Amino acid sequence: MDSDDKTALGFRGAQVCSLVGITYRQLDYWARTDLLRPSITDATGSGSQRRYSYHDVLELKVIKRLLDAGLKLQQARRAVECLRGELGADLASSQLVLVGSKSVLAHSDGDVVDLLAGGQGVFNILPLSGVVSELEAGIVEITAADGADSPPRPRAHPAADYLASAEAAER
After folding, report:
1. The pLDDT value given to residue 135
2. Crossing angle of helices 54-68/24-32, nearest 10°?
3. In the 3-class helix/strand/coil scheme, how is the chain assigned residue by residue?
4. Residues 6+ apart with CB under 8 A from 156
């Protein structure tokens, strides 16, 4: 049996604990309180074995990382619920910023939201990647409309102007 076959069957509780770095008691509590229930096989009674998928283990590791960063379990639970539910984000691929233990920020649809405040927007992100090309296109358009042969060269940064004038003075 190769490694792909083993992960297809899932991971047993003891394996998950070892991979995530938590105790079996924590894993059991998290499953019973619906923080993360195993997606392959849930417990059906005494003696039954839970089976966790690779994605389950990845999410558990993220939760553990939040706890290691200083969040309380209740805060980690709130952040995870907000990411999964209200934002519909994949927990394992999310980028989070912790601001002490007061805020967990995530990027969602151009906004930075606070997961501990239920996904309330905190900042708007303004993408600036196209500003230079938009400006250059506008300059070309304006100079063409004015009948100029070539557009004026864009001004360099003020520091570059200063360096150029200092070099010219030395000559």
Report:
1. 82
2. 110
3. CCHHHHHHHCECHHHHHHHHCCCHHHHHHHHHCCCCCCCCECCCCCCCCCEECHHHHHHHHHHHHHHHCCCCHHHHHHHHHHHHHHCCCCHHHCCEEEECCCEEEEEECCEEEEHHHCCEEEEECCCCCCHHHHHHHHHHHHHHHHCCCCCCCCCCCHHHHHHHHHHHHHC
4. 164
Q: Which two tokens stand for residue 85?
A: 């539910």
Q: Closest Cα to residue 64, out of 28, 30, 22? A: 22
Which tokens is 120 given?
A: 């309330």
- pLDDT for 163 beyond 80: no
What pLDDT, in 10s, does the model give residues 7-65? 568 899 999 999 999 999 999 999 999 999 999 988 777 777 899 999 899 889 888 98
Q: Which pLDDT score is estimated for 1?
A: 45
